[in-house]
Amino acid sequence: MADAPATEIGSGRDDVQFRFRDDEPAGVAQVTVDAFLEQPAAEAVRVEPGDDARALLPHLARVRLVEVNFPVFGDGRGYSAARLLREHGYTGELRAVGDVLVDQIAFMRRCGFDSFAPERPLDPADVEAAFARWPEVYQSAADERVPIWNLRHG
C-alpha cells in the first residue's frame, strides 16, 4: 500500500475522508474489540457486526480510530455502533469500511462517520450528489445538522 493521503470528497467538507485500499496510510493497525480490550496500548479498533460497541465506552479517550465493518450493505448494525460512540463523546476518526455504497453515505455521515473506506471506489460526483440530496433533516442525529422544525420554530 502506498502512503498517499486520503481522498477528500464532499462539498468542501474537510471533515469527510475517503480511503481506498491503495491509499491507506501505513502504521495504523486495527484490532478486534476483544483484542483491543486486552491491549492497553492499542489505539485503533475494528468493530464487526455483532460486536458490542458499548465495551469501548470506558476506553474512548485512548481510541484514535474506530473502523466499523459493513460486510454487506444490508447489515445496519454499524449505524447503531457509530451513533452510540458519538453520543458518548467519541471524537476520533470513525470509519465505515466494507460494502459501503454511495446511497448510504449521507445516512452514515448523520450517524457520525467521518471517514469511508469502501471496497470499491466511489465516483466523486455521485458522492457530492449524495451529500447534497437532502439539504434539510427532520430529526436530530450524531451530526451537527439542525432539524428543520427547530429552524422553523427555533
Automatic annotation (TrEMBL):
Family annotation (InterPro entries): UCP030820
Protein name from the UniProt record: Oxidoreductase probably involved in sulfite reduction
Organism ancestry: Bacteria, Pseudomonadati, Pseudomonadota, Alphaproteobacteria, Sphingomonadales
